[in-house]
Specification:
With about 425 residues, the chain is mainly beta. The chain is built from no helices and 33 strands. A hairpin with a 4-residue loop joins strand 30 and strand 31.
């Protein structure tokens, strides 16, 4: 059985209770769920918000979210985190405005069920990714990085991961949950694969300053990181996938001890990560080869700049996905040094990646993705005129013959 993936978006209800999502186009029983949303329902909306979460079962789920308030006389940023839910959200003044608890994956009809114990005050749209087939399960976790530099092993997982995805909304310490609180936001998503490829993207949103103080960072030689606007808190790189977990390396000791990094391990499939520098003008098709993987699912991120090895100013970042048929993206921008603050979110339902500029807001770059047997093609529908670095993660199946993930030719009976 191949890797199976399904991505879509769902308008979350504004009432509490049990909710079941059973798309007619979903053709398999899911084994893992990842979600991402902003406060936007479609296109742009004030306040920079990002809600991230994952569920492998009703007893194994994690979530983090942040909000940076728009048009505030001083920067107003909040963070919430939980290891007993798969999605959470915030409103202005850092009040919890959404809590969702995962219930089950369903086989008839295919889909999943969750319970909203705190419904959003206004409608918002949740982007979700369902995995199955060769992906036998995903396992959410929390990794305490402790103190000191060197190798940091995550142990106690169910097996050897094929891929690990990390995410945070803030620098969480000392506990595995955080009620909504005034706190500097660090919106990070990173990944690493068994083949050693890796990457991460993050934005930093500082709380309680007269003018906004924001920063962003993106690397292809690291798998996770948290930075202030001027200094490293922690940054990790791939070492190994282990029998019951994984190991990353911190070149420097964390400046804050016991940082909790959330994430989930993926069991099954073939995964690889990479990057490309976008065209500067619109184009109908630019081809990217993902050697050794015929994509069933692809993830994309950008911080809206060319490749850099240092932290850059501005709170711009985006995360999107594609299953070869459907795609979505959630993007934010929080302009540095703005007073009052200028912070916006964007929910994009027809492209796998967009980069925005807050204010109106407006799309700077947009990418429509098409999968093929050897990788993917991006159609650059909106171009800013600047080549920006896009990092990606693809998961699928290794080719039966050859090493490029290209078309498979099966021998006729009797020839071998």
């Amino acid at each position: 059985m191949p890797v199976l993936a399904y991505v879509n978006t769902e308008a979350l209800p504004t009432t509490t209770g049990s909710k079941t999502i059973s798309p007619s186009a979903l053709t398999f029983t899911p084994t893992g769920l990842f979600v991402c949303s902003t406060r936007s329902t479609n296109a742009g909306l004030a306040d920079a918000t990002l809600h991230l979460g994952a569920a492998g079962s009703s007893s194994n789920e994690v979530t983090q979210a942040f909000e940076s308030e728009d048009a505030s006389a001083s920067s107003d940023v909040g963070v919430v985190a939980s290891n007993t839910g798969f999605m959470a959200g915030l409103l202005d003044n850092n009040a919890v405005d959404m809590v969702g608890d995962f219930t089950s994956f369903n086989a008839s009809p295919f889909g999943f069920t969750y319970n909203l114990s705190d419904a959003p005050a206004t409608a918002l749209r949740m982007g979700y990714v369902l995995l199955g087939g060769t992906v036998t399960s995903i396992e959410p976790f929390i990794h305490n990085l402790g103190s000191g530099s060197g190798n940091k092993a995550k142990t106690g997982l169910a097996g050897t991961p094929s891929c690990v995805i990390f995410f945070t909304a803030g620098i969480l310490t000392a506990a595995d949950t955080l009620a909504a609180a005034t706190s500097t936001g660090t919106a990070m998503v990173g990944w690493m694969c068994a083949d050693g490829t890796q990457g991460y993207c993050m934005s930093r949103h500082t709380d309680a300053l007269a003018a906004a103080d924001t920063a962003r960072r993106q690397r292809t030689d690291k798998c996770c990181g948290g930075f202030s606007t001027s200094a490293e808190v922690y940054e990790g790189s791939f070492v190994s996938m282990d029998a019951n977990g994984y190991t990353i390396n911190l070149a420097n000791a964390p400046s804050v001890a016991n940082c909790r990094v959330y994430g989930f391990a993926i069991y099954g499939g073939t995964w690889t990560a990479g990057s490309f520098l976008s065209t500067t003008t619109t184009t109908t098709g630019a081809d990217i080869k993902t050697t050794g993987v015929g994509p069933a699912i692809s993830f994309f991120q950008t911080y809206g700049l060319a490749a850099n090895t240092t932290t850059q100013t501005g709170g711009k970042r985006a995360l999107g996905v594609c299953d070869g048929t459907r795609q979505w993206c959630m993007a934010v921008d929080d302009i540095d040094a703005a007073d009052p603050t200028v912070a916006d979110s964007w929910a994009e339902l027809t492209h796998a990646l967009v980069s925005i500029t807050a204010g109106t807001p407006a799309v700077d770059d947009s990418y429509f993705i098409t999968h093929h047997a050897e990788g993917f093609t991006y159609q650059h529908d909106t171009a800013s005129g600047t080549a920006i670095q896009v990092i990606y993660l693809v998961g699928g199946d290794a080719p039966i013959f050859g090493d490029t993930g290209g078309p498979i030719y099966r021998p006729r009976k009797g020839y071998f």
